[in-house]
């Protein structure tokens, strides 16, 4: 089991989470939407060395933070007629239709129709749409996994979809199982493919190192473009990030 020691350092007015792990290289990430900074450092690297490393990357850190601050935000959903909703990167206007039958969602040209019983509250409306998004992802993800299992020569034991506050996806390497963020249903299919491939490559390489990048370049040459597109997409109103 990986040994992890968590510390906190300040670089000027920037708070940096430092995790000392049993790894060989140091990794720096800035997370949207708030620009939170995290560093993963080898156990042997003392805190002063980590601080010097962070200072050397300060310009890049601030650039990333400014980019995230400029990003758009999706306002909180109310699930009412003529509200904008997204599916696989395309924008639809919601049309709420009351009926005395089981709820359902359907796409009609430029419209997302939601059939609900009278007096259905916002919470239940969200559940209905979220479940529809979940089913749409379940329709496309198995095909992507199957395609890349053959290319990567790996086996994915299973996948699951859930709401996640910190990632678009994650991989349980030992269980060979991947988890995908429900929000991906709103993003272009190419971005969904990128996240699936990213997590599958972790079955070949645990860390985001040169070997990992080489695999991504080999199996999904345009992955950087898709990653940028994903990070450029509007974020939900809640403070979750990748």
Instruction: Provide the residue-averaged pLDDT.
Output: 89
Strand order within the widest sheet? Answer: 1-2-4-3
Please give the share of residues in helix. 25-40%
What summary fits the major beta sheet?
4 strands, mixed
Given as residue ranges, the uncertain stretches (5+ residues, pLDDT < 50) are: 237-242
Specify the number of helices: 6
Indicate the overall shape: globular
Along the chain, the helix and strand elements come as EEEEHHEEEEHEEEHHH
Structural category is: alpha/beta
Fraction of residues in β-strands: 25-35%
The Rg value, from CA coordinates, equals 20 Å
Q: What is the count of β-strands?
A: 11
Distance between the termini: 24 Å
Considering the chains and any ligands shown, give keywords for the structure.
single chain; 242 residues; alpha/beta; 4-stranded mixed sheet; 6 helices; globular; disordered C terminus
Give a short overview.
The chain is of the alpha/beta class.
3D structure, described in words:
The chain is an alpha/beta fold. Helices cover 36% and strands 27% of the residues. The protein contains six helices and eleven strands. It has helices at 47-56, 58-70, 122-152, 189-201, 210-219, 223-232, and strands at 4-11, 14-21, 27-31, 36-42, 84-87, 90-98, 104-108, 111-116, 158-162, 169-172, 177-181. The strands form three sheets. Strands 1-2-4-3 form a four-stranded mixed beta sheet, with helices on one face. Helix 3 (122-152) crosses helix 4 (189-201) and helix 4 packs across helix 6 (223-232). It starts with a strand and ends in a 10-residue tail after the last helix. The model is unreliable at 237-242 (pLDDT under 50).
